[in-house]
Specification:
By secondary structure, the chain is α+β, with helices and mostly antiparallel strands. The chain is about 30% helix and about 30% strand. Strands 1-2-3-4-5-7-6 form a seven-stranded mixed sheet, sandwiched between helices. Helix 1 runs antiparallel to helix 2. The longest helix is centred in the first third of the chain and has 17 residues. The two termini are about 30 Å apart.
């Protein structure tokens, strides 16, 4: 059962630090990977929609702690293909539907913006098996596997999902800039 808080799309001044803390708490990401996650938030803050990054944040309404977030964007030089760059949920909230809710809302917004397909890159390491199972349970299939991509013994697994046909590109996206 999902007990997801409402989502917001506009990053606040504290969000780079909050995303850093969230990504660190998951225990999955290296320091350099966390730095990239934070950099995308800062890029969105600095350039707004021109950054090409779209964000969703789920905050705990009682404590204002960040419970989860996603970051996604249109893939340059494609017609309707989008990347899901990040999706992360606080360890204490995993398995309660927040990740699915973030993914579903990200997909809804991508579809409303004219997106037709979402791609997700993840690790092939054994400790990422729950992550891969999550994507598969959400309708994603393996589109490619690049052997030893991230490091020796750490494949890059690319997932993809065709989105339901939308009404085409809206003149006003369903999120605030």
């Amino acid at each position: 059962m999902s007990d997801s808080p409402p989502f917001r799309s506009r990053p606040g001044p504290a969000d780079p630090a909050r995303v850093h803390d969230l990504l660190t708490a998951t225990g999955f990401f290296r320091t350099d990977e966390i730095a990239i996650g934070v950099e995308l938030i800062e890029e969105r803050q600095a350039r707004g929609p021109d950054s090409g990054y779209h964000l969703l944040f789920a905050d705990d309404p009682e404590s204002s702690r960040l419970l989860g977030y996603s970051c996604f964007g249109e893939i340059p030089l494609t017609l309707g293909s989008w990347d899901l760059y990040w999706i992360a949920v606080a360890p204490k909230r995993q398995g309660r539907g927040l990740g699915r809710a973030l993914l579903a809302e990200s997909e809804r917004r991508i579809t409303a913006a004219g997106g037709r397909r979402v791609f997700v890159d993840t690790s092939g390491r054994p400790d990422y098996a729950p992550t891969r199972a999550f994507y598969e349970s959400c309708g994603y299939g393996v589109a490619a596997r690049l052997t030893d991509f991230y490091a020796e013994g750490d494949d890059k697994v690319v997932y993809s999902r065709r989105l339901p046909a939308g009404e085409g590109r809206d003149s006003s996206p369903p999120w605030s800039p």
